[in-house]
Amino acid sequence: QVQLVESGGGLVQAGRSLRLSCAASGNIFSINVMGWYRQALGKERELVAVITSGGTTNYANSVKGRFTISMDNAKNTVDLQMNSLKPEDTAVYYCNVFAGSGSSARLYWGQGTQVTVSS
To answer: At residue 102, does pLDDT exceed 90?
Structure first.
């Protein structure tokens, strides 16, 4: 059983910061990629940022320069530091983990945490 527990969401004014954290626990081995996706009301889920176990990162254009993703391989955690938040960043943010290889490869999702940015 694998569990992803997210924390750090909330309500914040535009221009302020929030930090999201996600911890993976359970029978999970060989994490390859951890990341964050978000889904705004009425929109499709979209990638925000991902990071590989080797430290390579990729960001959505809309968050480049404002958000920073980091990963602790030893603790199986991934954080998302969000600065200069905008109302359009309002969404449910989901932690995502891709682990294993070949037939054992699995994709896991957290339950989501709400981020609301007021103008």
So the answer is: no
